[in-house]
Amino acid sequence: xxxxxIVVLAVGGTLAGDGPKNPPLPAEMSSKTPQERVEVPPPxxxxxxxxxxxxxxxxxxxxTRRELTAMHTDIVLKHDETHRWCLDCHDAxxxxxxxxxxxxxxxxxxxxxxxxQCHGEKLRDWRAGVHGRRTGNWNGTKGYLLCAHxxxxxQPRFHAIAPKPAPTPPSRTMK
Amino acid sequence: xxxxxTAQPSRRMFAKAAATAATGWILTACGPKRLxxxxxxxxxxxxxxxxxxxxxxxxxxxxxxxxxxxPGVEFAYALDISRxxxxxxxxxxxxxxxxQSRDPQIQWIRVMQMDKDKGVDFSxxxxxxxxxxxxxxxxxxxxxxxxxxxNPPCTKVCPTGATWTEKDGIVVIDYDWCIGCRYCMxxxxxxxxxxxxxxxxxxxxxxxxxxxxxxxxxxxxxxxEKCTFCIQRARAxxxxxxxxxxxxxARKFGNLLDKDSEIRYIIEHKRVLVLxxxxxxxxxxxxxxxx
Lengths: 175, 291
Hints:
The complex is a heterodimer of chains A (175) and B (291). By secondary structure, chain A is mainly alpha-helical. In chain A, 25% of the residues lie in helices and 6% in strands. Chain A has helices spanning 2-17, 26-32, 53-56, 111-115, 120-127, 147-150; strands at residues 97-99, 105-107, 135-136, 142-143. In chain A, a hairpin with a 5-residue loop joins strand 3 and strand 4. Classes of the chains: A mainly alpha (175), B alpha+beta (291). The interface between A and B is large, with 29 and 47 residues.
């Protein structure tokens, strides 16, 4: 557990140090911070949307912050929207990836590293098995989910849901 | 002559002693036994008979496991009060997994809605809340089931020894030994024990056929039942049904003796409380605030 904590702190430290302008060396990066990859089910993409490069490869990159009108109009960003927009998380040069603040590309399967940049204590708890839903075996393979399996990354706040029926109060008459 | 005189009383004594021993052996060996006294091979025949009975009644293959505790394991549970939204998914997953009676209704988990102004206070709580959507403004939710106490008041009052604590910390009931006096229900400060007032009904299509002798095997009228940490799953290494179904991931389960388990992490790093601590029941069920 302590080792994991140190790893997470180390990642935080490197991220704070590297500006987005310095392109990182992936090999060096991984030797400095041996990230423990967590096995997760495939990310919850909308039907037919991935790989993103299918459409984006032939397009020129427009980095200006703007409201999208032609495509992705169903995405409403409610996730620190005053400070963030698409390209803060999505990689502009290779659309099939996300990127960290350092510029390092991360696949969607490792998106927890991206989320963990701001939500460090959640990532730490998640790695320990304390944040998020657990399935599988308590003494064997534990089932992990990506952040995006439960939280919509564009609107991460949980929505209220309908409860299951209330219990029937005890009655004095017996059947 | 001399030898016959001395031999006769000793032969009679031997016969008497042998007869007493034989009667004693017959009385103790042939009568019904609590599960922890039953020899292993006898338990197997008992379990096989039960399986036949359930197969005839429900029309499908029911297995009754007699798996014992795993050495070096003591189960504990943790529930994140700051995340629970009171959706009752756990209640119904538990009913389905553990074959609780649908009518009359028995539910091992009771989700209490509490006021944020009052804090954890059972005198200002209700399990009957029924809004269109949860969580409701100004409220939080505390699901309550068996706390699997280290110092359980319920097992001490049982006149037949039908309920006890297993080596892995699970408080269990042998339904065949329960006489339905309900002393344990009166003793439990958490309302965790439930009584079968009538013959329980489970639609055979909904019966979970993977059962355990001390857990979710179908019960009969007149016995007490309660949460067993899903003994049939936990002793097979799996998480209880309520842990896997919780949509907000508020429920945690693991081995208290394993320093790398989620449970130990929670106890060491989070704000943890137990219900009715002042009663010195020492629950193995912890409530915590992750945020």
